[in-house]
Amino acid sequence: MRTFAEFWPFYLREHSRPATRALHFAGTTLSLLLLASAVALRSGPFVLMAIVCGYAFAWVGHFFVEHNRPATFKYPLWSFAADWKMWALALTGRLGPELERAGVKRRY
Asked: Contacts from 16-22 at CB under 8 Å and sequence distance 24+?
């Protein structure tokens, strides 16, 4: 893949199960809160906890729910950006149409 536009649908298909997306959302949200705490408290360990938390939630989703390999292993920067995009779209209720365009069937 040569562009983020090519990567984005692939990324969404790698997150086809709602539980995987929920784990990503939880991990990203907790990471954001930990980063805010790191700034407020001027605490380096909180930065490390934010990184570990974000990846731990995501990887649990991939290895135990989705049963695939995290895209971050092959596309680390695009995966990082796509995770934040997916988080923002989920937060604002606009993720559904993106999933449909990527060919992800809704599973409830």
From this structure: 16/66, 16/104, 16/105, 16/107, 17/61, 17/65, 17/66, 17/107, 18/107, 18/108, 19/61, 19/65, 20/61, 20/62, 20/65, 20/66, 21/61, 21/86, 21/90, 21/95, 22/61
pTM (whole model) above 0.85: yes
> Position 97: which residue type?
P
Per residue in 14-25, pLDDT (tens digit) is 999 999 999 999
> Which residues are within 8 A (CB) of 68 and not within 5 positions of it... i.e. 6 or more apart?
14, 62
Confidence of residue 81 (pLDDT cuts 50, 70, 90): very high
